[in-house]
Design brief:
single chain, alpha+beta, Protein Transport Mog1p, Chain A, 2 domains, seven-stranded antiparallel sheet, two-stranded antiparallel ribbon, 9 strands, globular
Length: 212
Amino acid sequence: MTEGWVELEHEFSLDIAYDPSVWLELPPRWETEEWQDIGVWARDCARLFWQSYGQSPGDSGVAFLADTLQRLAVAFAPESFDTRVVIRVGEPLTMPLPVMATVKPAQGYREETLRALVRAEDPESVEPPVAEPFRAELLGEGLRAFRYVQQDDAPEVLAALRYAWRDEDVGADVVLWTAGDDTEQIIRAAMDIEELTHKVSVAVWDLEPKEK
């Protein structure tokens, strides 16, 4: 669910000023030292979460959550510089919800690209996706779409929520999305996800050498 590297004169990255009491960021694979310590990261985060949760984890609560976090990191931790992944841990004994965000160089006509990014015409949707304008505080006008998708290899229907914007100032397209077979979980997280969208912005790294 991640994207490849972008070879550009200017490379993009994302700034996400997320609320750490709601979201936990997965360490990226390209941070080699952090990735080597992924087990330590998972255990530390599990202990801290149980402390903030205010209930006793019992004999196995910390280990259970640590294992869950480590499996999520293995599955979803970003492999490229232009992607970030945060997870919403509602309760320590339930599966957290991953939310991915990616930035790419702007391509094509704005409206067509944004509709493609939110899968507004997805032929695999159970019913036509609901796509509507959405304005984020930092990225401005964009699109939001919610759809249901039938899986090829499982009977459960996936619920998918996607947002997309074009940052005209830097020439970048941004997409933020989540999906899962627990529709109620996504609905419960919808307000937190919407709040998160207002905290996303594009950072541009100038790779040209400075003149002396």
